[in-house]
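Lab notebook: predicted structure, single chain.

Context: the supervisor wants predicted structures on file for every construct in the current expression panel, including those that have not yet been purified. This is the next one on the list. No modifications to the sequence; it matches the entry in the shared construct table.
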Amino acid sequence: MKRPFVMMLLVVQGLLSTMCFARGKFLSSWEDRVRNTSACQPSWVVPVVTASSGIVQLARVDLLHQYTSTHFVTWNYGNSKGFDFIPFYKTELDINSPPYLQHNNPKVRDGTGDFSMALKYRLFAGNETHHNYSVSAQVQGVGNTASYSNGLLRNQINPSVIAGKGFGRFDVQSSLGGVLPVGSVNNIGRTVVWNTVAQYKVGKIIWPELEVNANYYFLGPNNGKDQVFMTPGLMVRKLKFYKEDPKNRLVLVFGGGMQIATSHFHSYNHGLVLTTRLVF
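Prediction complete. Output recorded below exactly as produced.
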């Protein structure tokens, strides 16, 4: 009776050893892939609002404070951010948790926003010693999972192209995309989204920036209107946790900006954006 029991223990031990080896090899390969992907593109900081033209792996939490022309305030906890992964070379997968929206308007109920995911693929890139540029294509899907009236009326698909070019310590990144509702197009409308940011690296960790965030509406209740914000901001990167380990990627990045409405039509006057990212 002892021999089968001993044989079973040996089999279990072998399976556990194989699983541990596979897990260690999988994580090691993942880390190498992230390092190789990052090394082939510029090391610009991810902007406050505008999407990065490169591929990144980080956890991100934002806080948005919006002030409307009718003197109501909305707090957006999370701002539809979450985890950005690099599962394959030159590929990024974003999983964004629903934000929580808190209003001081008694006619609007507090609640959660929509869940979203995005897939980005880097088409072309070169780091600072190889032309200093990057171009990516992205498709985002947003589901109307919000509670009460804190989200979309229908699901959306948002394709976009993001490009950036660096000139020494200065870089410009720009994204152009569309917001395409799945159904009820005439009632909801379509939106062209164009964001551009100019950044400059001061010293080793300070990145002041100026963004232009613009929406152009077609069909729907806002047909023919446009909404533009100027967003001065500042990012601080990279505060490394393990300086003695050059291979360890764990760093803290944080910053913020103020969205200021510059168009006649705008859903809010200004919005304070605070952001924290943990790069891993």
